[in-house]
Write a structure and sequence with these properties.
three-stranded antiparallel sheet; about 40% helix
């Protein structure tokens, strides 16, 4: 998932062909004799990221006979899921053969209301369990793509385990070092507790700095490190770690440890440039936050410009993940053996191929395009990351893979529900009402529960 791409993608339906040069002369699809038919694989996605990956796949596999017909619908205004649901339920030749789901709603398509449409990878002929082990795919990612029958129906190409991303100059000025190992100790990296983090916040405050930009920076870490999700056995549930967020958020605000920004708003981006109310020490997030958000909002394009090059990553106090995209195949694909084999080729190249010609190695090392150095990203395969170079100028030359490989392994994928996108919105609003002093904690929780009861098919006690 790339938030930059999501923000830029138009909300309207966009359909385009990626490989139509010889569409009229393509050989038949195996269905019947006579006039040949164009071979097409329909793809539904919410950004152009996966369509562009498949375009690259076709360039590297010139004998691949299928055209790709992508339908791209942004998640803006909630447009993507209803369109995908309609296409899946309608079926027919225009139904998606491959479709994508992000972390906010993967559970709906792998385990929830729409899981019955998803075809297990093994039924495409992919030796998925062995290849997952060989590729060292992080368990949280596998868990989220596993259906109620224990079959893997979705895998990602990106790993989104989270770390703490901090300003080196502020670290040196405040703590006398910018060494990631030392900074991790100072903020309680791996401790499972926020105690040392808030001690560091007090020290930073003494130097006129904020430890984070806003409470949302902490929320993403808290949300995806909780033991249980918002719904357990059909009943609404508030995990103790998520409830504790109310107190953490209030402490951040009351003690002036942040700039009280909201994520994805202008003030949040200003803090990345070092242009906010107080200098901000760091942000919690995965590699995509570095590549597609911090870098774009650092105020520079090379070391010495803005905050570019003044960053580093270290272990978070708690393990978490944030975001990601999973690829699923429509069960209807099995009706066409030849197409099923083609779909399997694509899915395997994107999600499980650990060779230097696979997508993941190319993406991890910034070699997606021949002769051009591109963005290095943290991919799903730990095996690929361990043989790749994750050094970034943006991070002062640090190899980010050294931090993100264990971060991916420490993430928990068993605390999401299909309602998270909606519930999180209600929750964040009510927490801010509490921290602003407009409601007591009990009043905020009561209002939160009422929103759930009024709007979702969940039992609230």
């Amino acid at each position: 998932m790339k938030k930059k791409a999501l923000a830029m993608m138009m909300a309207a339906l966009m359909v385009f062909g990626l490989a139509g040069c010889n569409s009229d002369s393509d050989s038949g699809s195996g269905g019947g004799g006579g006039k040949s038919e164009k071979k097409v694989i329909n793809l539904y996605a919410f950004t152009d990221e996966v369509p562009n990956m498949i375009k690259r796949f076709k360039e590297l596999h010139p004998d691949f006979e299928y055209e790709i017909n992508p339908t791209i619908i942004a998640t803006t205004e909630g447009a993507y899921q209803p369109a995908l649901d309609q296409a899946l339920s309608s079926g027919g030749k225009d139904a998606p053969d491959i479709y994508t789901a992000e972390a906010a709603f993967i559970i709906k398509y792998s385990q929830g209301d729409a899981y019955s449409y998803a075809l297990p990878y093994e039924e495409l002929g992919i030796n998925v369990n062995d290849k997952i082990k060989e590729a060292e795919i992080a368990q949280y990612s596998v868990d989220l793509g596993t259906n109620p029958d224990g079959k893997v129906v979705g895998l990602g190409y990106q790993a989104t385990g989270g770390a703490f991303i901090y300003r080196r100059s502020i670290a040196k000025d405040t703590f006398g070092t910018d060494d990631p190992v030392e900074i991790s100790k100072i903020i309680g990296g791996g401790s499972g507790s926020w105690d040392k983090f808030f001690e560091a916040a007090e020290t930073l405050k003494g130097k006129g700095n904020a430890i984070v930009s806003g409470d949302g920076d902490l929320w993403h870490a808290v949300e995806n490190s909780s033991d249980k999700g918002w719904v357990v056995n059909g009943k609404f549930n508030i995990d103790p770690k998520r409830e504790e967020f109310m107190d953490l958020s209030k402490e951040l605000k009351d003690k002036g440890y942040h700039n009280d920004t909201a994520d994805w708003q202008d003030a949040w981006f200003a803090d990345m440039k070092g242009e906010g109310a107080k200098p901000v020490f760091g942000f919690f997030g995965p590699a995509w936050l570095i590549n597609y958000t911090l870098a774009d909002n650092s105020g520079g394009e090379k070391p010495g410009e803005g905050t570019y090059g003044d960053w580093a990553v270290c272990e978070s106090p708690i393990g978490f993940f944030w975001g990601g995209t999973w690829l699923l195949a429509n069960k209807a694909v099995k009706e066409d053996k030849e197409k099923a084999e083609a779909v399997a080729q694509i899915l395997e190249w994107i999600t499980l191929d650990t060779s230097e010609n696979g997508l993941q190695y190319r993406w991890a090392n910034g070699t997606m395009e021949e002769g051009k150095v591109g963005t290095k990203d943290v991919v799903a395969s730990g095996a690929v990351l361990k043989k790749s170079n994750g050094e970034l100028e943006f991070l002062g030359g640090q190899n980010m893979f050294d931090v993100f490989v264990p971060a991916n392994e420490n993430a928990n994928g068993k605390n999401l529900t299909q309602y998270d996108e909606t519930i999180n919105s209600y929750w964040r609003d009510q927490v801010r009402e509490y921290t602003a002093g407009n409601k007591t904690k009990d009043e905020a929780i009561k209002a939160f529960k009422q929103q759930i009861a009024d709007n979702l098919s969940v039992t609230v006690e």
